[in-house]
Amino acid sequence: MVMDFSFEAQKTQQRLLSELDFSPLTSKQKSIFTARLETNFKPLFEQLFPLYQHHFDLHFHLKTLLQSFIDFQKKKRPAQIKDKSDFWFESNKNVGMAVYVDLLADDLGSLIDKIPYFESLGINYLHLMPLYLAPEGNSDGGYAISDYRTVSPNLGTNKDLKDLASALHKKGIRMVLDFVFNHTSDEHRWAAAAKSGDQEYQDYYHFMGEQDAMEYNQTVREIFPQIRRGSFTYLPALDRHVWTTFNSFQWDLNYANPAVFVAVVEEMLHLILNGCDVLRLDALAFVWKEKGTVCENLPKAHNLIKAFKACLDIAAPQVVFKSEAIVHPDEVNKYIGTDECTLSYNPLMMALLWESLATRQTSLLYHSLERSFKIPEHTTWVNYIRCHDDIGWLWDDAISGRLGMDGFGHRRFLNQFYTGQFEGSFAAGVPFQENPVNGDCRVCGTLASLAGVENAVAADDPVLLDHAIKRIRLLNGINFAMPGIPLLYQGDDLGVLNNNDYLNDPSKAEDSRWVHRKKLTEQDFALAQDIKTPQGNIAQLVQEMIQIRKANPLFAAPEFELVSLGSPHVFAFKRQMGDKTLLVIANMSEHLVSFERPLNSIMQKDSAHNLLNKAVVDLVTLNTIEPLDILWLA
């Protein structure tokens, strides 16, 4: 017998409404809330039922959940941003930056003093890396949360965070926070209770015997193989293994337990109370486990995330989710949708831009984006060149295979190239988490060091330096022009180089990602003000590109098309808005390259403006592009 979900959802909703306490709400608040509930309860029920249909207490958990939504409506939040448009993320005026509070400033209070810098640069989307209470020493960069409701004391207080949100909102800057919902730290109160033998809280995590752990380890992949083999940590005091996908101090939550879902939703609402506009869903591919699978990207993970989104639509519809799925491109796209994640990181484009710079070839980039770039209406990519994490070479091996590339061998080449082990490499990256069994590896480094600035400065070679800065201009030129929100990583706007100070800190020395997590200094900002320095050149080109993007609505054009110009070294695409066209052409090589197609036939015009230098271009005669150059033709 097939269940009639609409009927069952309506029946359950009516029963719950009769049991809920609406006394905290005014009649207007109750009316608004019940209207949202009427629209979104069925989607919530449809997603939770496959997960928890066998739990006799599901009704209790639903009631607890809805009551928390009601109570949330009365709680005071910082002043909200004035721009209330539903699809704000589709605007060309969006430019983002990801920052560590204590690396860009000192604390939340002093970060308010950086708002004029964000304004001058054109930032209106600020992602604050994890800032909640975490273990002393190694906390995976703050991604081991000990208390979602307490700001780390070295950064300030909850009030400081709310004050920052208000200050950002007054300047039209949206605040993004991490929602670390796959795991907590082993110091979280839930974990502490589990360690003490509390069975209720042991059910919040995945505790099991050695045999079960061994069986799971047969099919799951190792994320940090240099730190710990397998995905479990043994607890001698309990004689049990606990699931720890990442570090031993990060315990994976057990979402097969509905109490965990309800508890984590309540933590999510607290994050929203601090004034955030976007929640980044950390490690969302790992949230559901089933024996005999890789325990990544499972169908019920999507049920879970859609359930979280339905909760958001009921309790705080002005907030949107951003997906962080650093997995196979086909899987990345499955998390993107108006019923799941409105925004999504674009790890494929990031990795393949670096691949194209190393090979001077664009075929893998073209073929991959052709398959994977299109996403549903009213969702958008968050495009980036670098981030707080490593670069993983994620592409579809079926595509590289059709192009005659061996996926494993090509990744090995890229790792060697970007860690300076390949002859002729321009890069000064650092390897991250090399797997001793299969040789898999990722790469760390700042934009400037990976693009060649560090090596060029060390060699005192002006030609190499010119090439390096052109690569940075090229990457930013693509990033700012592609559909989506361009995201800068702190310091890349200043041309900051790799920093090895982390090697002197025992809590960081084994995590090479800290090579690009530098504490920014007044000298870094001063160098970026001096046009005679590489840093000054980089800062200027970034700022000019942002200004051009924000001034031209073509960068919000809805129509996007990859364009082939007949050269293996060129990447080009077209964006269309009515009768207006933006054609972007990038040369990934250090040589002059010719086009096989006339540009006037692509743009249906004989002339255009190059937005990057304000020159009028004759499209009939323009048939070459300079080495490592990029054109924005409008």
From TrEMBL:
The source's domain of life comes to: Bacteria
BP GO annotations: carbohydrate metabolic process
Q: Which CDD domains match?
A: AmyAc_Amylosucrase (cd11324)
Name of a matching Pfam family:
Alpha-amylase
According to the entry, every stretch annotated as the Glycosyl hydrolase family 13 catalytic domain falls at 98-549
> What SUPFAM superfamilies does UniProt report for this protein, alphabetically?
(Trans)glycosidases, Glycosyl hydrolase domain
Q: Which GO terms describe its molecular function?
A: amylosucrase activity
Q: Which Gene3D superfamilies match?
A: 1.10.1740.10, Glycosidases (3.20.20.80), Golgi alpha-mannosidase II (2.60.40.1180), Oligo-1,6-glucosidase, Domain 2 (3.90.400.10)
Xref: PANTHER family:
ALPHA AMYLASE CATALYTIC REGION (PTHR10357:SF213), ALPHA-AMYLASE FAMILY MEMBER (PTHR10357)
The protein's name: Amylosucrase
Q: Which organism is it from?
A: Marinomonas profundi
